[in-house]
Amino acid sequence: METLIRAVHTRHNWQEVFEDPLFRDAFIEEWVPQYITKRRWFAGKSTPVKVFKIERILPLPTDFGYYYHIIVEVVYEPGYTETYLLPLSFVTILPKEDDIKILGKCVIEGTEGFLVEAVYLEDYRNALFNHMIKSSKIGIGADNFFLFERGKVMTENEGDKISSELLNVEQSNTSIIYNNKYILKIYRKLFMDHNPDHELVRFLSDQAGFTHSPKYGGSVSWVRSGNFMVSIALMTELIPNQGEGWDYMLKKIESAFDNFLNSDLKISELPKLKYLRKMKASSIPDQYSVLIGEEFLDNIEMLAKRTAQMHVALASNKIDRHFVPRSYNSDFSVWLKNRLIYIFENRYNMLESNLHKLEGDGLEYAHEFISHKSDIIKHFLSFDELKLNSKRIRIHGDYHLGQVLLADNDFFILDYEGEPESTIRDRKVKQSPLKDVAGIFRSFHYAIYATLFKKKKYQDSQNECSLLGSKLFRVITNVFLDKYCRVAFKNNLDIGYSQEIKYLLKYHLLEKAVYELGYELNARPDWAIIPLKGIMQILNVEENEK
Ligand SMILES: Nc1ncnc2c1ncn2[C@@H]1O[C@H](COP(=O)(O)OP(=O)(O)O)[C@@H](O)[C@H]1O
Ligand SMILES: O=P(O)(O)O[C@H]1O[C@H](CO)[C@@H](O[C@H]2O[C@H](CO)[C@@H](O)[C@H](O)[C@H]2O)[C@H](O)[C@H]1O
Hints:
The chain is α+β, with helices and mostly antiparallel strands. It is 42% helix and 19% strand.
């Protein structure tokens, strides 16, 4: 249990407690700042906060209890803001769950109790499920209500007996598992709009018939005046799985390194492979298949197939303006270049002020990054829509191995929220599907170098393993690319011909790696070496290919 600050006494009852200025001030000035900044889902950990404000108080009266959904606005020193959702309840007796999150202690009309995160309370979780089953509409004020929507997969009698538990994994939101059949993701960082996750999951499941994304189970939205929808939570079907693609990949890379080190193979004996060149799994030289296994290559092909099918589905609606594929044009180029130059400048400044946190190779790569400033800017500014004939579509946007679940040698794709740092409008801009492919390629690179840098057992063979790693990266990405393109072409997904594909992939690989550098410096600086290494490899390959 985290340390609590002073208890607040109020004469207001729970239903009117936010009308008491003493309570309100303690809540927003003391409890929220102390609580929210420690949460995994709070994105602004490395930016000083100017002020926390209560943006909205949304009461949710139910048969199970009276809850609040507080929308907290965080105003950062540099001037931008974010909004977060806090579902709250008041309890006099703490439930048994040890990790219940308490915001503050209060005495309401003489009764001592705690202000807690409602998600830890079974009654609250059941209330949400019940309202979803009933597709309830719960008014908050004029033209202002909660809208629960039950998706096609849920049936009315499923509310008769409810079991619920909080999901216990590292995540950016908070999820509840119901009846071992559904998972409800309660969004923490809110956008005053439809969340793309909600929009895309529903579209893929109910309209496009994409079978490898979880089925849409329902949603909770806050509808503001003017039919303005804010996504609060998304229910999907729970997929039985053997874990995330990320853990699977780490295991496979480790065994490839071990197999190599335990063999008589020499790096110089391993055949050379071209960069971003399509290769069928069956034509990968035996020396590599022996190291990584044929089943693994089959799974890479399967992941490529599902990725391409996701894009085919996302491009399938030719009527709805939110989904219709678009050509490249100068507006898009300006938007992209501005965005990337902004992101690059931000990373450059961040890196300069964080150099003291890096050491060894990481520090060396950081200096190299700094000295390549003009090359990187040139790369981003080189984007030229006139050279591109393929189409832009809605994409996943934050596609990496942590977003795919392995299920019996197949994969399901999750979490369509888009790139965490982008604004909600930017997340919905149609982009090349190859940006997602670049995202997963970066993830392959991460798995290789996370294994190499984080596992002590490879310390004495870093150079050899690093060379092996760059070869394995080519094996995996080339096999992926071959399968992805075959499925895309067969289904008429317009990704362009070889030159255009390679151009877009290279462009987005650097974009992704630069994005990741910021993510790592903010969230886990000792991982910054991975995108830094990636950036240098991308620039060096381009240099060698000139
Ligand atoms: N439909 C699902 N079936 C099974 N597990 C899921 C499902 N959706 C999410 N998960 C689990 O929850 C984790 C976090 O989900 P995700 O949508 O990425 O949430 P967040 O955006 O909070 O990170 C996933 O990595 C996975 O382990
Ligand atoms: O939490 P999200 O899924 O929205 O994604 C963010 O966090 C990811 C890390 O959890 C981060 O991914 C980066 O690290 C991964 C390994 O942990 C790696 O597989 C990814 O390729 C790499 O980008 C992601 O970038 C960030 O948006």
